[in-house]
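Q: Fold this one first, please.
A: Sequence and structure below.
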Amino acid sequence: MAIKSIDDYPVVVAEGEVDHWKAPELEYKIDQLIFEGHKKIILDFSQLTYIDSGGIAVLFLQLQKLQPTNGELMIVTENKNILKILDLVKITEQKSFSLYSDIDEAKKQLKGSSY
């Protein structure tokens, strides 16, 4: 898991599995960006194969941290299993949460906004 700069946008890249062992690392990476003042955070889950309740809990916790600043978690994935899990736990219904099929689509939403 890493924070990469893609066209000057910070992106948290998660690969493989985010389970209860890796969830704290995901939380730490997102916390870093929030601490730096980023309101809209892209999470590249395009290479993610699995996320368990620990990873989902981190996403909900980070949404709570971002909501007072009108922040947003922007998830990039086309993995049907990941999408199904996100939909099942109803995180997709949160107003400060959005899904994108690729990084370029997410970046378009950031242009002209404070991220």
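Q: Good. Now the second chain.
A: Here it is, same layout.
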Amino acid sequence: MVAFERDPDVVALIETNCRRFELENVEVIEGNAPDCLQDRSDQPTRICVESSRAIGSILEAAWDYLAEEGRIIATANNLEALYTISEGFARLHVRHVDVVQAAINRLERRGTHQALAAIDPIFIISGTKLN
């Protein structure tokens, strides 16, 4: 798996977590996507992209580098990013698409009841490159 991250502190955190959980199949690339993709000579089988303002162009550039039958994974933490990713997946003809919503909830009192209030829900969208 290849992960692209522009923030050096986050790169260090990802690398620390990979060591902690003994993951050896994750490569973290520090840089701004899609510009950092130009230096890639191989075709990764997994690419994970976190949503940003340029998520559409990042998806398209990552798709070009992704190996046949590889998986692309993208995250969205707002409706606009989810829509842009979904639209991009359709345009790229991504197959076997999975969408998962992960949420952390906090228990809050509302009147006489306690309710679970979502805290920063995130969507994880993934799919396969097939020709």
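Q: Anything worth noting on the second one?
A: The radius of gyration is 17 Å.
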